Amino acid sequence: MAFEFRNMLKNLFTSKQRDTNQQQYTSLQMLNNYMGMFSNFTGNAYENELVRASVHAIATHVAKTKAKHVGQKNSRLEYLLNVRPNQYMSAYDMFYKFVTQLYLTNNAYMLIQRDNLGNIIGFYPINATNVDLKQHMGNVYVEFTFLTGNKVVCAYEDVIHLRRHFNENDMYGSSNVILSSINLLNTTNQGIENAIKISTYLKGILEITAGSLKPEDIKKMKDEFVHDYMNINNVGGVAAHDTKMKYHPLTVDPKMVDAEQMKIIEDKIFMYYNINKKIVMNEFEENMFNAFYEGVVEPILLALSEEITAKIFTSRERGWGNEIIFTANRLNYASNDTKIKMCKELLATGVLSINNARELFNLEPLKEDKRLISLNYVDAEKQNQYQLGQSQ
Description:
Shape: flat
Largest sheet: 5 strands, antiparallel
Number of strands: 12
Radius of gyration: 32 Å
């Protein structure tokens, strides 16, 4: 059964959110930009395999994040953010798509789904072709225009919005400046492809010396020569003809970008995405991944934590300590030596439980978890009593 867009609108947006009466809204006026419109133009960026591989590597690692609700426990929120945020995708799929959009357009949007009572029932990444900020009665709204032409207007407070290169515009991340490097890389790849093709083509002129001939006779002689001597079955590598023809070979020397020049072009793309080629190729070691985590993954998780916390909790709830924290277990990428040293130190102080240590080595947890404390440690406030053998 074909999935219809209007069914998705009905499921994702409340009747209030689906209101698209343009007479209610005016364009949002900003300090540096009068029109609050943004077009998600990506050019051919995602069609380039190097860009797609780089974005895929970042989105893959961010999507492995785990959400934790700090404060008043809300298992429903954690379930939505960690397991099934909506009926169409898993939590991994949602964050993967969200981060991919962030790196392709420098803006990413996620709708907070609410029921008619205002309760949060899900999250859904929005991939719109155009985004237009509106205002009405002192409130900010966002109008999404989709590829189908359908439009939806939502309160901006119900939209999680992350941006990269947040500079010129008051509300949006700047447009991508990587397209020129992508075009250069595409041109280089096409040059290599064309050079390969040229090397397989016939490169010569067949001169007919048999006097004046009709065009069809010249073509026939040419076709016969090509068929007899310029096909793969001529394994002898020798051609023979009479004095009616002379063959003049042509030298073609196609120019290609050398390996060093190609590396410079590729490195520009890796630099733009702040990623190392070995991360993309899954050839990284512990220190390299830690640098990637701290420079790329962690800032996204921090921004995501702050934005979701601000959008799903009221100021009163935030005042009571409610927040959403996103973390990723980068210890999975540590070497076994590092894990062993960590367990020796942290098990003895009770920071890690036995199951925490087993998890580092991908071992099944014990039914009864325990924390072990070394007797070599003592309460700092009671160290004098301990040394002097005094009773507490």
